[in-house]
């Protein structure tokens, strides 16, 4: 049943997207509260 595997894949991707969004939000919160270290390069592959 290929349809079921597709549903599972979509569910997994949705969960991953949610997780990544949460991590990005937490990162942005931390960046706002504390000054960013000089050695950290900005990650441009977020989009």
Structural overview:
By secondary structure, the chain is mainly α. It contains one helix and no strands. The protein has one helix at 2-33. The longest helix has 32 residues, at 2-33. The chain is rod-shaped. It starts with a helix and ends in a 14-residue tail after the last helix. The model has no long low-confidence stretch (mean pLDDT 77).
What would you report as the Rg, rounded to the nearest angstrom?
16 Å
Low-pLDDT stretches are: none
Overall strand count: 0
Helix content: 55-70%
* Overall residue-averaged pLDDT value: 77
Structural class: mainly alpha
Shape: rod-shaped
Order of helices and strands: H
Major sheet description: none
How much of the residues is beta strand, in percent?
under 5%
Distance between the termini: 33 Å
What is the tally of helical segments? 1
């Amino acid at each position: 049943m290929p349809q079921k595997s597709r549903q599972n894949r979509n569910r997994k991707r949705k969960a991953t997207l949610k997780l990544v969004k949460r991590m990005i939000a937490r990162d942005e919160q931390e960046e706002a509260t504390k000054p960013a270290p000089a050695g950290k390069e900005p990650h441009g592959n977020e989009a």
